[in-house]
Amino acid sequence: MATEIRVPTLGESVAEATIARWMKKVGDAIATDEPLVELETDKVSIEVPAPAAGTLEEIAAQEGETVEVGALLGMIAAGGAKPKTETDKAGSGKPGAKENQETKMAGGGQIVEVNVPSAGESVTEAQVGEIYKKVGDAVKTDEALLELETDKAAQEVMSPVDGVIRELMVSSGDEVAVGSLLLRIEQGASAGAAAPAAEKPAAASPAPAKPAESGRPPAPSAQKLMTEQGLKASDVAGSGKEGQVLKGDVLAALERGAPSQPAETPKVARPASPVEDEAREERVKMTRLRQTIARRLKDAQATAAMLTTFNEVDMTAVMELRKKYKDLFEKKHGVKLGFMGFFTKAVCYALKEIPAVNAEIDGTDLIYKNFCHIGVAVGTDRGLVVPVVRDADRMGIAEIEKEIGRLGLAARDGKLSMADMQGGTFTISNGGVYGSLMSTPILNAPQSGILGMHKIQERPMVVGGQIVIRPMMYLALSYDHRIVDGKEAVTFLVRIKDVLEDPERLVLDL
């Protein structure tokens, strides 16, 4: 029986890839999860692992060909697989490596190896955070062993079996690749049982990224585009494996108007602190998540023509509606009626009228999103994360409140999945929960708009010639002026104001 090898899902908005190279040829014996073929997209280079053991029977797509997601790459015939080596069992460091492997110790029970799990598309490494267990500790199935931090989220690694930790291969702060070995557990052992002493091996120093001109050649699609535009590989900063230039890198360079790679700004050495101050300072390494947040926020400012416009909304109608129905709402739907449901529906309403705010730039193209995936910024002790309420425009307020509640809890517990944070088209940030009266939020690239909510504060307002006290909130819309004109930005905020001051519009779709 033959097994098909097909192009896997390549990530949000990526529909095709180019075959860079085959690592096997027809007739070669292969093992399950052994890398077979390397694919290149505009954004990343990935390896496709073997879905089954056997012999490579057919190669259906040749190197240099462009293939769509789901397309047939080749066929594997059953039988003829070569046995895995000890290195394979310990984790190859490839995304396709199995997360847990079983071996036998010379004197004892079944040993289960726990490897770095796959953390989602384009994530190839992580940083070891807190380690909850030590060598000799007993663990239960699904008990948290340690925490890993990637560029996008933090996740806990759970024990696959009951047993005792016999070897711990990493320490807090270590950089580890997807598939590499974290620890070994002796399955079924008790905490008091003796075991051979094991020391953590010396960690290999991570290889520095190679510049494009001294690493791998550019991806075929990137090479073609560079040839058309008269660029050299040295003109483009490569983001692929070993500094390889991908098509997306070339597009980014062209967008900057570069035929030459901008020189990296040299780091200015921090002057030493006075002796009396240095003793009272604490130096802490930034987590990968915090480093990524810092880089993305700075990139957003450097890339977009960012501008912020303001308005204010009288929250009287929403607050009265919430007060009137909150008990009945919670009884019926099992979730509290907050303000985010109203704001999310109001944003969806405004995005349909002003689609430019829901668009993004891709090279020289504008991509208009005919759907509303609303990101909701959530502050956690690890940093800011933005889980996404997908298809919020198709949801009722109760559904939105339930999904926001689920995502907020997962964010605080460090259990957000990659799918929870991908694909947002617009973001809402509620600084009002911390008491912020006004701010200028930074875009969540590649999105073109972000709405800042703020503290509700009673202020004197003139209504019908009379001075009255009303609960008011300042709204801020930061937007990419390359896509959104000032008139559109102002109109967008006015529509949100209109809907929130007269919530019946949401019901009547006016």
Automatic annotation (TrEMBL):
Family: Belongs to the 2-oxoacid dehydrogenase family.
EC number: 2.3.1.61
Protein name per the record: Dihydrolipoyllysine-residue succinyltransferase component of 2-oxoglutarate dehydrogenase complex
PROSITE patterns: BIOTINYL_LIPOYL (PS50968), LIPOYL (PS00189), PSBD (PS51826)
Bias-annotated ranges (Basic and acidic residues): 83-102
Keywords for the protein's UniProt record, in alphabetical order: Acyltransferase, Lipoyl, Transferase, Tricarboxylic acid cycle
InterPro entries cross-referenced by the UniProt entry: 2-oxoA_DH_lipoyl-BS, 2-oxoacid_dehydrogenase, 2-oxoacid_DH_actylTfrase, Biotin_lipoyl, CAT-like_dom_sf, E3-bd_dom_sf, PSBD, Single_hybrid_motif
Chain's role: E2 component of the 2-oxoglutarate dehydrogenase (OGDH) complex which catalyzes the second step in the conversion of 2-oxoglutarate to succinyl-CoA and CO(2).
Claim: Transferase is one of the keywords in the record: yes
Cofactor(s) required, per the database record: (R)-lipoate
Catalyzed reactions: N(6)-[(R)-dihydrolipoyl]-L-lysyl-[protein] + succinyl-CoA = N(6)-[(R)-S(8)-succinyldihydrolipoyl]-L-lysyl-[protein] + CoA
Pfam families hit by this protein: 2-oxoacid_dh, Biotin_lipoyl, E3_binding
UniProt-listed GO biological process terms: L-lysine catabolic process to acetyl-CoA via saccharopine; tricarboxylic acid cycle
Domain (Peripheral subunit-binding (PSBD)) ranges: 217-254
Subunit structure: Forms a 24-polypeptide structural core with octahedral symmetry. Part of the 2-oxoglutarate dehydrogenase (OGDH) complex composed of E1 (2-oxoglutarate dehydrogenase), E2 (dihydrolipoamide succinyltransferase) and E3 (dihydrolipoamide dehydrogenase); the complex contains multiple copies of the three enzymatic components (E1, E2 and E3).
Sequence ranges of Low complexity compositional bias: 196-212
UniProt-annotated stretches for the region Disordered: 81-104, 196-227, 256-284
